[in-house]
Amino acid sequence: MPASDALVESPAETYAREGFCLRPQVLPRELIERVVPRMDAVIACEYETGVPPKSRLWKPGDDPRKIRKIDMPHLCDRTIHELISHPALGRAAAEITGAETIQVWAVQMLYKPPGGATAGGVGWHQDRQYWRYWEGEVFTAWIAVSDVTPEAGPIRFVPRSHEWGEVEGGDFFQGRLDELRGKIALPNGASWSEVEGVLPPGGVSFHHRYTFHGSGPNVSAGPRRSFAVHLRTEKSRPVAGAKDYFISNLDDPTANPVIYRA
Hints:
- By secondary structure, the chain is α+β, with helices and mostly antiparallel strands.
- The chain has a single domain, classed as Sandwich (Jelly Rolls).
- Helix content is about 20%, strand content about 25%.
- Strands 1, 2, 3, 4, 6, 9, 11 and 12 form an 8-stranded antiparallel sheet that branches.
- α3 crosses α4.
- The chain is globular.
- About 40% of the residues are buried.
- The model has no long low-confidence stretch (mean pLDDT about 90).
């Protein structure tokens, strides 16, 4: 093996060290192109399957500057379901975790409008703070549907923050990142730096449940389109006695498809 090859780090090594990794080419471009109009249909409350999403943060008539967040959109639309259950996504997730099984347990459709409004931002947070009903290995795959440039308000990751454990102060719904950053108390010896998750359409980032991340406003000319697909491996289980929608349908292959088996 040439010496240069030996120095190339694998996605699994990057994920383990940094708490996230970027995969620029995962999902086929033709599928991404078919998903774009289906996202617009769901945003407009047009549901191909006749089944509504689990919840909507935004509906037609609301402030157009705000981020559109719609939970479980794959229940509404077959093309979106094809995207979030694509085998290539499952293989990439298994590659970084070494898992034998990958299952989708929740999906968020995210549409960040152009214009640069603070209302389009996502505050610094750790996913774990919203996932009290899970134990073990749960993590997120973030699918870029549009070209996520530095101007489009990409996710910003804080490298190695997954090593800090749970930290108080994060808030998904607080779009003023600098203001929120001042409320997050870092562990002794920890330092804060940021890396932008710039990705082309069909690219995917993966991040650990404890990795701090957020995103600023979209100052590009078009919307930033994406899906956050929350995944679990065989090393996870619902917390005993917990009750939540997202652990109530794990045997339903439509809501919670298994997208990889070793």
